[in-house]
Design a protein that fits this description.
The protein is an alpha/beta fold and 427 residues long. 40% of the residues lie in helices and 16% in strands. The two termini are 26 Å apart. It binds pyridoxal-5'-phosphate.
Length: 427
């Protein structure tokens, strides 16, 4: 139930315009596993929140947090076994070129550190990103957001159209030719940065382009673009804030989409809700960053972050959540794909493990995006007890991104509700 007086107080206390989901906003008071509960005790299957990756109120994580707080929590300028072990473990989960870690408190900070590392390593400033991305909200990182066709003049940022097969850059060409077309756009961005002064430091990409869709990527693009960046003297940053930590059915999104980044950025799920971000790279890059920047972040690289971060990793392994993401996610995507030929409003269904997008359109010929339909669909799903939202360049993609404890049974219940809602909408 909406609480009008709480909404009014919220407007005063937080300022009007702080976004709320759904026509009738939810007041959530409790979470457990994959479920959230509102003020009236109504239960919802959470299919949106990736931060509580090992489940809301996970008791092992809660206990680790409480135990560490009850023991000691200090800033990072003291020796502490826990934080070193956590950094070693995080680096060890990555490919061999990733050796050392800088901890921070958010994805935004971790991306910003990644860009600074790339700038120091290359001596250049220029950044290439996609035209429909989001990597965070600071002035620098926010300047990469949703640039569309016309990035700002005199900036160090250039944007290329994100690689996709549903609305391809060129129609009627082979997948290989499509891949080359996107690569040519990246190359043009790099040449332009070199010609105009900033030079080329880095290409930053979410490993599955989560905020862009996530699209089906023309095969071979990620490895080829990585080669291109290296030939041009730049570094590749993999933003794993959404795609990391088992989301795709492998530890890292870059394993799923098959490339080897120079810098890996993580955030959201790392602390299951405790603010925790990390930027990892080879030791020489991190050493150069430390030498130049004297980076310090008061609440980062603390015993508390380490204890919670280790508990999250333990839980992912103990509960076999990466396999779960692969199995449940792949099956749910398949079932949603089966609905494409029988429903004119479903343009596409695609995903990587438990990050799934269902593209809603007005009709199959025009493929015109239908953002209104997605809003209505996610409101109806909410009324039936399933929390989703929207994403994509046109806000017309139903976004499914549950905690990794989401089960086959949850998927079955969701599919029934989805069919009912689609039936109601087309009635
Ligand atoms: C891909 C990606 N990178 C970075 C961020 C920024 O993370 P944070 O909100 O923790 O700063 C986000 C946030 O949504 C994101 O989606």
């Amino acid at each position: 139930m909406a609480n009008a007086s709480l909404q009014h107080r919220r407007d005063l206390a937080l300022g009007s315009g702080a976004e709320l989901f759904y026509d009738t906003p939810l007041e959530i008071v409790r979470g457990e596993g994959v479920y959230l509960y509102d003020r009236d005790g109504r239960r919802y299957v959470d299919m949106y929140n990736n931060v509580p990756c090992v489940g809301h109120a996970n008791p092992v994580v809660v206990q680790a947090m409480a135990k560490q707080q009850a023991t000691v929590n200090v800033h990072s300028r003291y020796l502490h076994e826990g934080i070193v072990t956590f950094a070693e473990r995080l680096a060890g989960l990555n490919h061999d070129g990733i050796e050392s870690v800088v901890f921070s408190c958010s994805g935004t900070e971790a991306v910003e550190v990644g860009i600074q590392i790339a700038r120091l390593a290359t001596g250049n400033r220029g950044i290439v990103c996609t035209d429909a991305t989001y990597h965070g909200n600071s002035e620098l990182v926010g300047s990469l957001s949703y640039l569309g066709n016309e990035p700002p003049e005199n900036s160090d940022v250039r944007a290329f159209p994100f690689p996709e097969r549903y609305r391809p850059l060129e129609e009627g060409v082979s997948e290989e030719e499509l891949c080359e077309a996107y690569l040519a756009r990246v190359e043009a961005c790099i040449e332009n940065l070199k010609a105009q002064g900033p030079g080329f430091a880095t290409l930053i990409m979410c490993s599955i382009f989560a905020n862009e869709g996530p699209p089906d990527i023309p095969s071979g693009f990620m490895a080829k673009v990585t080669d291109l960046v290296h030939r041009e003297g730049g570094l590749v940053i993999a933003d794993e804030v959404q795609s990391g930590y088992g989301r795709t059915g492998l530890w890292w999104g870059y394993e799923t989409t098959d490339f080897l980044p120079d810098i890996v950025v993580t955030g959201k799920p790392m602390g299951n809700g405790l603010p925790l971000g990390a930027t990892a790279a080879k030791k020489a890059f991190i050493d150069a960053f430390r030498a130049e920047k004297d980076y310090f972040n008061t609440c980062a690289a603390t015993p508390l972050q380490a204890a919670v971060g280790m508990a999250v990793l333990d839980e992912i392994e103990r509960l076999d959540l990466i396999r779960n993401a692969a199995e449940v996610g792949d099956r749910l995507t398949r079932e949603l794909k089966d609905r494409i030929p029988v429903n004119n409003k479903i343009g596409d269904a695609r995903g990587y493990g438990l990050f799934i997008g269902v593209e809603m359109i007005k009709d199959k010929v025009s493929k015109e995006p239908d953002a209104k339909l997605v809003l209505s669909l996610s409101d109806r799903l909410k009324d039936k007890g399933f929390l989703t939202s929207y994403s994509g360049r046109f806000n017309n993609v139903l976004k499914i991104r549950p905690p990794l404890v989401f089960s086959h049974a949850n998927a079955d219940e969701f599919l029934s509700a989805f069919d009912e809602c689609m039936g109601e909408i087309s009635a």
